[in-house]
Design goal:
GO terms for molecular function: cysteine-type deubiquitinase activity; proteasome binding. The muscle-specific isoform (USP25m) may have a role in the regulation of muscular differentiation and function. It comes from Cirrhinus molitorella (mud carp). This is Ubiquitin carboxyl-terminal hydrolase 25. It is a single chain. The chain is of the alpha+beta class. The chain is about 50% helix and about 10% strand. It contains 32 helices and 16 strands. Strands 5, 8, 11, 12, 13, 14, 15 and 16 form an eight-stranded mixed β-sheet that branches. The protein has a four-stranded antiparallel β-sheet with strand order 4-3-7-6. Strands 1-2 form a two-stranded parallel ribbon. It is globular, with a radius of gyration of 41 Å.
Length: about 1050
């Protein structure tokens, strides 16, 4: 066989196996013969093959065993998928020629190889592209999916600023959560990170690429280097991966709304990176066999050992990601055991020339990074669509691979045989135990020990000599009220009648007599009313009893029943103990040290939430230096735990489950080891880890971001200054003309009252505040002998401050919040500087409308003079303004909360939502400055959460009606109100109740996927679900906050008190939310 023929045969085998794997994944069909038939009918076109399999109504033919158990010749093909029945290459072990199908495939690939040499694109990639295009076309034709909404950036760059050394997130640029999950998992493999960062492009990269593969892979590698460098040293909270994603999308020829499969993307990504490193390796080692670091890191080898009709074979294959079936297994080891053994294996290690066929897989070389693909999707032939498998599958944090290694083949076979024998014994014991625990021949069965106990209780009951129906007096009138009482009752009545009159007094004798009467009443037998009382008469036995039984019979029967029950209980305990011992023995079968020498630690878990046609991806990644799990969910990177990982990844609990597991060799610490400076020995971090070109790239991006922050700060400063000038101008314009001279230029800026202290008319707020001020002045005048205005002002200010301080120190319920009544109470609560409080009090007494008597006017003039004498360096006016702005924000928050709660109590949830949303956001900003700056955060969060749940429930009910108008209204509520608010609940993942509420809402809509509905409803649901499930924690811009009405302080306090009182009376716990 020539070299050209050898290459042609390898490509033929590779191409056929790739087509079979892709076709099996898309349709869920595992019958190799049927798959080959579909490919033959469709001439290798996967889209037509899929249509052939899904539309075929004939019964699937039985698989030919000789065809099934053929395996491939020894080859270095690393693209083969393993682990299922259809994953074995085909070779004729009998020495005959290839069949017609194989020859046809080989001939058809001659032209493909010529195209590969010209373009550099393999047939595998073309096949994947055709499948994706067919899938996209089908989606467009049947679902008419719209462009998925992309979350916008916050306009405030401070919200997008990285906090210290927190990991950097990746922005979701449109159904790219799969990209973020995979890239973050690989980036946190520090050895892989170093390979990418220190990758130097080939010298000829500046020239025209030789083929399309180089034209695609080398630019992608460069963009990945840039992306990794930003993840290392960026000052941004998250970065934009659009450039790298665009290259991928262009290569897959998919629309922006088509969501890619995680395992497929990872497989293709590793191939591209491998090709890029291969190009560099070939350039660096001309004339030598190039060494590709990607192969060393991610690829391993296994040995296929099998028997076909008595003929043994061995074949070595290379693998990357290892696929595992999930359906029917409870943990990862069961999946691996099933993937490593195919067919009848008794003959594999038997000396007899058996006709049985089968094969085993044994790992000869494991990669440092071992990746398992968990197949959680299957194609439903009846419904004609893919479905997700939600079964629970457990996996360990530390996985020992010794039992699957070729060097342990003999030991493992012995242990597997022992486990098989133990499981057979276990099955027998469980069947026996079941007969004890479910005894009987009818539909209802009971534990045998209980049956014997009931029989013993029946036999031991007091015998009765009459029929259970013969002793009922049928002559008594209805109600039974004339039944005669037994003699004790009449005796008691006579005793009651003979009580002496003095016994009715209040002394000890009277109390003793009352106790005797109560005892006598208890001794009386009440009359049984069969039609009004469910209690059985006291003179009838509580349970059925035997009619006739002698003492001898009872003694013998009780002895037998006691003995039998003891025997049954002992047998049950022995069976349960034996079952527990066997379970324990099986669990510890591989726990000896010799089988714990190949440890692999769980590095990353890629999670999918949703259904087969819609969902969201994120990743849990272990940080070995902090010894904790981190959750990478697009732009949000948060601390997590093993418990949260288990809840989201094992499956069976909700619509989320692990889709891909990445383990790393625990004996190779270089995979996650930090890099150290060779000269100083210091650990490299941040920009120091980057090569010069990437360091320059990140520094330039950081400077752009810093400039953006500076421009934002300057813009906000200008806005603040404009607000100050506008307020000053409004205050000056509102003041009446005065003949008093203007203050000199070197005095403080023109004074103006804050909005809530404006006193331009003796009505509303001003009147209420003026009354308080005049009351303080009157009290000061009564206490102070001197009549000077300055002394009266000082005393009045002390009186007023004392009154407000007393309010601040009171422990009041929520409905009476004194902070709303006066700004000084708010300042005292939050420990405002003394100068700020004094100036605010002076402003109160400097009101021009403060009374019309001479005393108040003189005090007002003194107060205004004091204000003018305050030097700029004595009171920080910028700080003064900030404190009053915070109080204005507090009042606005109160109004938002007040209106939102009033609307919520009226069940106007649509109108209430925005008020509650802004109340929570404003309140959160206030509480960030101090615990007394705002209101109860849990209270606002509760009603915000409940409002969203009510809207979700209402929208779902409208959707369930099936009416066009109602459905559109429900989806409009979800899209315009609920979906845009979900990130607000997810941004703080420490709030477990919000997380549960989001899951409740998502699960409600995901539950519709498995239900039959009209095609138009299915289309609308499929269009809507990605928006609901693919919600990033990035906050989308809302509409402007609702315009707030103006309330006086008195009105605000009264309405706030009423609504808080209503909440106290009506609020109940919301089922754990």
């Amino acid at each position: 066989m020539t070299v050209e023929q050898n290459v042609l045969q390898q490509h033929s085998q590779k191409h056929q196996q790739t087509l079979l794997n892709q076709l099996r994944e898309v349709t869920g069909t595992t019958d190799v013969q049927l798959l080959q038939q579909a490919l033959q009918v469709s001439n290798g076109d996967l889209a037509e093959a899929v249509a052939f399999l899904t539309e075929k109504n004939a019964k699937v033919p039985q698989q030919d065993e000789a065809t099934y158990y053929q395996t491939a010749q020894i080859t270095n093909d690393r693209y083969i998928s393993v682990g299922s029945q259809a994953d074995t290459n085909v070779i004729d072990l009998t020495g005959d020629d290839k069949d017609d199908l194989q020859r046809a495939i080989a001939l058809s690939l001659e032209e493909s190889n010529r195209a590969f040499r010209e373009t550099g694109i393999t047939d595998e990639e073309q096949a994947i592209s055709r499948v994706l295009e067919a899938s996209i076309a089908e989606n467009k034709a049947s679902l008419k999916r719209t462009h998925t909404e992309v979350w916008s950036d916050s306009p405030n760059p401070h919200d997008r600023k990285r906090q210290e050394n927190c990991p950097v997130g990746l922005k979701n640029v449109g159904n790219t959560c799969w990209f973020s999950a995979v890239i973050q998992s690989l980036f946190n493999l520090l050895e892989f990170q170093r390979l990418v960062l220190h990758y130097s492009p080939p010298a000829r990269m500046q020239d025209l690429p030789r083929n399309q593969k180089e034209h695609r892979n080398l630019p992608f590698m460069q963009e990945l280097r840039h992306l990794f460098s930003l993840l290392v040293g960026s000052k941004r909270k998250y970065v934009d991966p659009s450039r790298a994603v665009d290259i991928l999308k262009d290569a897959f020829k998919s629309s922006e709304s088509q969501q890619q499969d995680v395992s497929e993307f990872t497989h293709k990504l590793l191939d591209w990176l491998e090709d890029a490193f291969q190009i560099k390796a070939e350039e660096d080692r001309e004339g030598e066999k190039p060494k590709n670091p990607m192969v060393d890191l991610f690829y391993g080898r296994f040995l296929a050992v099998g028997v076909l009709e008595g003929k043994k074979f061995e074949n070595t294959e290379m693998f990357g990601q290892y696929p595992l079936q999930v359906n029917g297994f409870k943990d990862l080891h069961e999946c691996l055991e099933a993937a490593m053994i195919e067919g009848e294996i008794e003959s594999l290690h038997s000396a007899e020339n058996s006709a049985k066929s089968g094969q085993e897989h044994w790992f000869t070389e494991l990669p440092p990074v071992l990746t398992f693909e968990l197949s959680r999707f299957e194609f439903n032939q009846t419904l004609g669509r893919p479905e997700k498998i939600h079964n629970k599958l457990e996996f360990p944090a530390m996985l020992y691979m010794d039992r699957y290694m070729d060097r342990n083949r003999d030991i493992t076979r012995i242990k597997r045989e022992e486990i098989r024998r133990l499981k057979e014994h276990l099955t027998v014991l469980q069947q026996r135990l079941e007969r004890y625990l479910s005894y009987g021949s009818g539909p209802k069965r009971f534990p045998l020990a209980d049956v014997l106990q009931y029989a013993m209780e029946f036999a031991s009951s007091k015998p009765v000599c009459t029929s259970p129906v013969e002793d009922i007096d049928t002559t008594a009138p209805p109600g039974g009220t004339t039944a005669q009482l037994p003699p004790p009752a009449s005796t008691g009545e006579q005793q009651d009648a003979s009580v002496p009159p003095e016994a009715s007094g209040s002394g000890p004798q009277a109390q003793q007599q009352q106790q005797q009467q109560q005892q006598q009443q208890q001794q009386r037998v009440s009359i049984h009313k069969p039609f009004t009382q469910s209690r059985v008469p006291p003179d009838l036995p509580m349970h059925p009893a035997p009619r006739h039984i002698t003492e001898e019979e009872l003694r013998v029967l009780e002895g037998c029943l006691h003995r039998w029950r003891s025997e049954v209980e002992n047998d049950t305990r022995d069976l349960q103990a034996s079952i527990s011992r066997i379970h324990r023995t099986i669990e510890l079968m591989y726990s000896d040290k010799s089988m714990m020498q190949v440890p692999y630690r769980l590095h990353a878990v890629l999670v999918h939430e949703g259904q087969a046609n819609a969902g969201h991806y994120w990743a849990y990644i272990f940080d070995p230096h902090q010894q904790r799990w981190m959750k990478y969910n697009d732009i949000a990177v948060t601390k997590s735990s093993w418990e949260e990982l288990v809840r989201d990844s094992f499956g069976g609990y909700r619509n989320a489950s692990a889709y891909c597991l990445m383990y790393i060799d625990d004996k190779k610490p270089f995979l996650i080891a930090e890099e150290f400076d060779k000269e100083t020995g210091q650990m490299l971090s941040g920009l120091d880890k980057l090569p010069p070109d990437l360091k320059e790239y990140v520094e330039a991006d950081n400077k752009l971001f810093e400039r953006e922050i500076e421009e934002w700060d300057a813009l906000q400063a200008r806005k603040l200054q404009q607000e100050k000038l506008a307020l000053a101008a409004a205050s000056v314009a509102a003041q009446p003309m005065s003949t008093e001279p203007c203050p000199p230029d070197n005095t403080a800026a023109p004074q103006h009252d804050p909005e809530y202290m404006e006193q331009q008319s003796p009505t509303g707020d001003s009147k209420h505040l003026q009354e308080d001020t005049e009351r303080a002045i009157s009290k000061a005048a009564a206490e102070h002998d001197e009549k000077s205005p300055e002394a009266l002002l000082n005393t009045a200010m002390k009186v007023e401050y004392t009154r407000l301080l007393r309010f601040a120190q009171e422990d009041t319920p929520p409905e009476r919040d004194y902070r709303l009544q006066h700004v000084i109470v708010y300042f005292i609560h939050n420990q405002a500087p003394k100068k700020i409080v004094e100036r605010t009090l002076l402003m109160q007494f400097a009101d021009r409308n403060l009374g019309f008597d001479e005393r108040c006017k003189s005090i007002m003039k003194v107060a205004r003079a004091k204000l003018e004498l305050i030097k700029p360096d004595e009171v920080n006016m910028e700080e003064y303004e900030i404190w009053h702005q915070d109080y204005r924000r507090f009042r606005d928050t109160t109004v938002f909360l007040l209106i939102g709660l009033e609307l919520f109590l009226k069940k106007s949830y649509v109108e209430a939502l925005m008020y509650l949303i802004y109340a929570y956001q404003y309140n959160k900003e206030l509480l960030a400055k101090g615990p007394y700056r705002g209101h109860d955060e849990e209270l606002i969060a509760y009603y915000r959460r409940e409002c969203l749940l009510k809207l979700n429930e209402h929208a779902a009910a409208l959707f369930e009606t099936g009416e066009e108008a109602e459905v559109n209204t429900g989806l409009s509520i979800m899209n315009e109100l609920v979906v845009v608010c979900i990130p607000l609940l997810l941004v703080d993942e420490m709030e477990e109740k919000d997380m549960v509420a989001v899951e409740d809402m998502r699960n409600r809509w995901c539950s519709y996927l498995g239900q039959e509905m009209e095609p138009n409803l299915q289309e609308k649901l499929t269009d809507f679900l990605p928006k609901l499930l693919d919600c990033s924690t990035e906050i989308k811009s809302f509409h402007d906050p609702p315009k707030l009405p103006s309330y006086s302080t008195l009105e605000l306090c009264e309405r706030y008190g009423r609504v808080m009182t209503s909440l106290t009376l009506s609020r109940t716990p919301a089922d754990g939310r």
